[in-house]
Design goal:
Its EC number is 1.1.1.-. The protein is α/β, with parallel strands linked by helices. It is built from eight helices and seven strands; from the N terminus they run E-H-E-E-H-E-H-H-E-H-E-H-H-H-E. It has a single domain, classed as 3-Layer(aba) Sandwich (Rossmann fold). The protein is globular. The termini are far apart.
């Protein structure tokens, strides 16, 4: 199996993408620590963790080491969002979203990269978004945080490469999750909003959590051992035909 004898940490493990990733990694042989504010349904170790809090991440990292050992794979799929324009956004929401989406990645790297460096092997993969490099009216805080996450990834990839640690992002477009469905419900006609969204993707459908998990598996595996600093789209062609 592709992740035999690996220990993996997955954040956002109670969400659609995180849960699918936990299941797939387990099927491929990994022992999985599932982190989320809500209780995750899958994982060898399931931990409550607030990615926006130093002490919460530190406590979760200690628990992972004590129960499973030092991870060589970390997937940061946790994300906070707010459906608001820049003028309508609150400064509190901006801070919280940035602290979870970007600060959470920093906390994970600080917690787990030193042990990876000691064995000269490891992989961090952050779930970003195509909204990190396109304008996203109505998702001001979320989109700007994903742009920040992309920049952080590139810096970390350079900083950690000498220690044999790879850092990458993936950039999903519209993935059929409760978060996406909630955005449709904010529109006057949710069904029409869904149809319009599907039409933005040349492959003619929404993505699925399984589509995302498959890419996360590849980037976390040794098959991707010469890939670092990449932001890989999983978007049904949306980024080449933005409409």
């Amino acid at each position: 199996m592709r992740l035999d004898n690996e220990i993996a940490v997955v954040t956002g493990a109670a969400g659609a993408i995180g849960a699918e990733t936990c299941r797939l990694f387990a099927r491929e042989g990994a022992r999985v620590a599932a982190l989320d504010l809500a209780e995750a349904g899958d994982g060898d170790l399931r931990l409550a963790c607030d990615l926006g809090e130093d002490r919460s991440v530190a406590a979760a990292a200690d628990a992972v080491r004590a129960e499973l050992g030092e991870p060589t794979i970390v997937v940061h799929a946790a994300a906070a969002t707010e459906f608001a324009t820049t003028l309508a956004s609150s400064s509190e929401a901006f801070r919280r979203i940035y602290d979870v989406n970007v600060g959470g990645a920093v906390r994970l790297v600080q917690a787990f990269a030193p042990a990876m460096a000691a064995v000269r092997r490891g992989a961090f993969t952050f779930v970003s978004s195509i909204n990190g490099y396109f304008g996203a009216p109505g998702l001001a805080a979320y989109a700007s945080s994903k742009g920040g996450l992309d920049a952080l990834m590139r810096t970390l990839a350079l900083e950690l490469a000498p220690d044999g640690i790879r850092v990458n992002c993936i950039a999903p477009a519209s993935i059929d999750t409760p978060m996406l469905r909630a955005s449709f419900e904010c529109q006057p006609d949710p069904a029409a909003a869904c149809v319009r969204n599907v039409q933005r993707h040349p492959l003619g459908r929404l993505g699925t959590p399984a589509d995302v998990a498959a890419l996360l598996l590849f980037l976390s595996s040794r098959e991707a051992s010469w890939i670092t600093g990449a932001n890989v789209p999983v978007d049904g062609g949306a980024s080449i035909a933005r409409r």
